[in-house]
Amino acid sequence: MAGQREDQRGAKGLRGHLGALARGQVTSGGVKTGGLALTGLAGAALAGRRGPALLVGGAVVAGSANLLNLLDLRPGRALKTGLLGALALRQPAAAGAAAALLPADLGERQMLGDAGANALGAALGLALVERTGLRGSAAALAVLAALTLASERVSFTAVIARTPPLRALDELGRRR
Question: Where do the structural domains in the chain lie, given as residue ranges?
């Protein structure tokens, strides 16, 4: 599902992977989309959501996982975002994990990668679902959907590069 990455069949972005699926072609991104959807639904169900709240909550968990993965294009970017999100949601375990991994990711000795970005994003999405009702989750889903759709047309990296506060945060701690 990652924004501008291309898989072995040439599908790009969410639209490309879903379009390929509609044509009967299974792409790695299509499989990942399905996996995130199932993970989101399972998380929302375990959080006690039922009916519409289950569907919306599941989409928030999956969308949060995807968003962090979309940001994982530069060292430290997804972890910084995850750390800020974990602090805002008062999730000390997620904040501690992100903070512990950040120096190695920034130093390019290790990388978070798809699995790590998706896991951290899903954990934050689930925390958000647990803290909000249906309205709060629906509002979060609207923001996540807008950002995901925007990623189909706009490079987040380009937006970050031309927005001084975001650029400064993005470059903070990275190797030159």
Answer: 40-171
